[in-house]
Amino acid sequence: MNSLERRARWLLRVYPAVYRRERGDEIVGTLLEATPEGRAWPRLRDARALVIGGLQARAGQNRQRTTAANARVAVMVGLTLFNSLWVAAFSSRIITQLMHGYAAYGPGSLAAYAVLSAATVVLVWTAPRVSVVTGALAAAAAAVYYLGLHVVVIVPAFLQVLYLAALVALGLRGARPSRRWLWLPSVIAAATPFIGIAVGSGWLGVSFVWLIPGALLLPAALVGILWIGIDARLVLALATYLAAATAQSVSAFIQYGTGVGWLPYSLVVAAIAGPAFWLLRRQSAPRARAS
Questions:
Q1: What integer pLDDT is reported at residue 155 of this predicted model?
Q2: Same domain, 82 and 57
Q3: Of the candidates 62, 84, 110, which is a domain's last residue?
Q4: Would residue 58 count as lying in a domain?
Q5: Which pLDDT value is given to residue 290?
């Protein structure tokens, strides 16, 4: 494979994987034939045409599914993000407590709650339905036990359990979405131990436990905005996450009289969700077709 073909195949990645498998060699062959001898890169107009064709092919993928099916994927991703951040915060708190040698929040019950919640999220995306239901019941039992020990956090923790239940319900309904959507929750999960160690060592304050994983969503938001004309699901997923975080902030305000101001968040959610859903409807099939 010479440098020209290697670069042509690199450009080909703009097409969906299925499309590349079926027609990739044909597209690359046509591009190589159209490129004058001696060039190490395809001509600009040919590269532009290939990229535009790839984006059109990706946009056409969503039109194989209904609006409801695409919205289900977006909401599942948003709830997965929120549950991942919640587990990240709990895990960081556990590491902090163990490093300081105190158990003000009951690290045993908290650890069981966090581990079972994380396991349930993974099962929703990867396992058969029986395993998903089993994991959800185990997480619910751990939640009941934890809430019984710590009534002070009952409202925020109840909301987290509610979001986990909603994720399980959506996961049991219809075909499972692609696991490629798990890249961002995986990054958050990988960063969790480092965040906990940083907080426990005093490098960062406890308030940063939520801020640092949340900051990881900023690049995803930028990608989603740039990609919204092709696929609005990522933006709608982030709107779902913001809606869940807003409700969590409201619950903290109701229970403690403190918390991050929730009105700006709700305005952001409304500003994002409306246009994103409108675009999603335009990008979806008008009626059910095989996906």
A1: 58
A2: no
A3: 62
A4: yes
A5: 38
Rounded Cα distance, 226 and 97, in Å: 41
Phi, psi of 36 (to 5 degrees): -60, 150
Query: For residues 285 and 63, is the Cβ–Cβ distance under 8 A?
Result: yes
pLDDT on residue 252? 66
Model pLDDT, residue 48: 87
The verdict on 88 and 192 lying in the same domain is yes
- Non-local (6+) Cβ contacts of 107 within 8 A are 94, 97, 98
> Cβ(64)–Cβ(285) under 8 Å?
yes
Query: Which pLDDT score is estimated for 13?
Result: 86
Structure tokens at 168: 């399980």
Are residues 158 and 237 both part of a single domain? yes
Closest-CA residue to 96 (of 254, 259, 208): 208
Segments of the chain scoring below 70 in pLDDT = 1, 62, 92-93, 96-97, 99-110, 146-157, 192-215, 252-265, 287-291
> What is the Cα–Cα distance from 225 to 275, expressed in whole angstroms?
11
Q: Are residues 208 and 149 in the same domain?
A: yes
Q: At what angle do helices 154-171 and 129-149 cross, to 10 degrees?
A: 180
* 47 and 155 fall within a common domain: no
Query: What's the domain range around 50?
Result: 3-62
Question: What local confidence, expressed as pLDDT, does residue 289 receive?
Answer: 45
The pair of structure tokens assigned to 7 is 């670069």
Distance between CA atoms of 283 and 54, rounded to whole angstroms? 15
Answer whether 140's CB lies under 8 Å from 157's CB: no
In a shared domain, residues 158 and 226: yes
Same domain, 144 and 275: yes
